[in-house]
Structure formats: structure tokens, C-alpha cells
Amino acid sequence: MNLVETPLMHTLSRALDLTSERQTLVSQNIANIDTPGYKSRDIDFRQELQRALAEEQLPEPAPLVREVSGLIERPDGNNVSLDRESLLMAQNQLAFQVDVQLLRAEFNRLQQAINGGSGQ
Amino acid sequence: MNLFGLFQVSGSALAAERVRAEVATSNLANAETTRTPEGGPYRRRMVVFNSRPASQFRLLLAGAFGDGGLQAGGGVRVSQVVDDPTPPLRRYEPGHPDADASGYVDYPAINPVQEMVDLMGAERAYELNASAVQAAKQMIQQSLQILK
């Protein structure tokens, strides 16, 4: 058993990877908001996280990027939704912050354990 | 995963939207221009946006893992600036130096309202991409806090 890398750290680092990948996709969708024929792309976060955690080997394969279904298409063939992308961007940012805070807390706990529970 | 790649994606969109705004402004400025270096009246210009594929490196990396699907990380670029094929508007102004034999002057077929709408669209899209850059910046700063 690895003492320094706890299972929670492993999970959080995968979640951070996927969150930044998703942020790249959101940025890409926003960048192409006026490109004729462009279709919104996204990843299935939950499924990709499960897949990344099940994978033993490193580095794990890149997440599967899909076109988003069920969006209203404009006459020029573009289906980027401004509201969807803005909300997703905010949500992603907060999710990233949560993961970072949890990771910091975990490192602090580890530090505490190293110091025999006598604080920092 | 590379958070710095976000700057390239959003940055390409900022550049593209700026070109779009420049073209719309140039159309507005030249709404009454009857002489150009190419001869004839000014012709209305339009930008054509094209989504940019992910960088070569990312594509190679994905290929190495046998993942031939869609990729994240491409931005947008202005593939070309084209002339509007609409014929010029003809106005009867016999005293104008550019009037033809029958007294008509060719003016560019520019609709100021259309250009203003395009300009506003470019401005809003620019703002949106700028906030995406802010988001990326904040995420990078947060990830630095793990070190503290």
C-alpha cells in the first residue's frame, strides 16, 4: 500500500484532469460560437471518471469526446448554446475549486499524521 | 492535462472576433466609398470562421492511445475574408466625379444596421471568450494553491 498517495488523492487528481479537459472543451465550444456547422462537444464526466479510476496503467487513455445531442441548431448548422456553455464554465470552475480544496485538506491530514497529531 | 492550452483556444477566438469587428467597422467606414485601389466602389467584406483542429501534438498523443474520435483543444480561425457579391447600389448623381455617362454613381451595397448587429455580435462573443480566459486563469491560480 502506498502511504503517501491515498485513494482520495488518486480520485481527486483524476477528477482534476477531467475537469480541466472539460474546461478545454467548453472554451472550444465558446470559441466556435460563430463557426458555421460547428457542433458542441463534451465528455460524460461520471463515466470518464469511473473509467479513469478503473484503469491501472498510467497514463490512462484520453477521454472520449462526443458531440452533444438535443441542442437546438441554428440555420448555419451551429448548435452551441450560450447558456449551456456559460453555466458549464461556472460549474466546472467551482468543481475544480472543490477538488483543489479537498486535495489540500487531504495533504494537511497526511501532514498531521506525520507529525503524530500534534498540529502542523 | 494542460490548463495552459485553454489560453490558446480562447486566444484564437479573441483574435478571430477582433478581425470580425475590424471588418464590420471597415464596412461601416467605407459605406460611401466610390473609389478603391482595385477600381470601382468599395465592396462589402465578410469573414469566414473555421474551427481549428487540435494541435499536432495532441492528435499524435491521442493516436498513440488508439483514440481516433473527436479531440479537445482546437480553437477557431478566420479562414478567409470574402467580398460580398451583391451588385453595387446605383444612385443618380450627375455632378459626382465618379458618375458614369448616364449620370449614375455606384455605391457599396452596405446596410449599416446589418453591420452594427455584426459588430455587437463580435463584441459579445469577445466578452464571452474573455471570461473564459478569466476562468482559466483562476483555475491555474487555484491549482498553485495545492503547493502551499
Describe the structure.
The complex is a heterodimer of chains A (120) and B (148). By secondary structure, chain A is mostly helical. Chain A has one domain. A two-stranded antiparallel ribbon of chain A has the order 1-2. The longest helix of chain A is centred in the last third of the chain and has 33 residues. The longest helix of chain B is centred in the C-terminal third of the chain and has 33 residues. The model of chain B has no long low-confidence stretch (mean pLDDT 87). Chain B is built from three helices and four strands; from the N terminus they run αβαβββα. Chain B is an alpha+beta fold. In chain B, 45% of the residues lie in helices and 16% in strands.
At a glance:
Chain A contains 3 helices and 2 strands; from the N terminus they run αβαβα. With about 120 residues, chain A is mostly helical. In chain A, α1 crosses α2 (about 45-55) and α1 runs antiparallel to α3 (about 80-115).
The structure class of chain A reads mainly alpha
The multimeric state of the shown protein is heterodimer
Q: Specify the number of helices of chain A.
A: 3
**Helix coverage percent of chain A:** 55-70%
Count every beta strand of chain A, where a strand is a DSSP E run of 2 or more residues.
2
Q: Mean of residue pLDDT of chain A?
A: 88
Structural class of chain B: alpha+beta
Instruction: Name the beta content range of chain B.
Output: 15-25%
In spatial order, strands of the major sheet of chain A run 1-2
Gap between N and C termini of chain B, in Å? Answer: 21 Å
* Count of discrete structural domains of chain A: 1
Shape of chain B: elongated
- Kindly state the mean pLDDT of chain B as a whole number? 87
Q: Biggest sheet of chain B: strands, sense, closure? A: 2 strands, antiparallel
List low-confidence stretches of chain A: none
Largest sheet of chain A: 2 strands, antiparallel
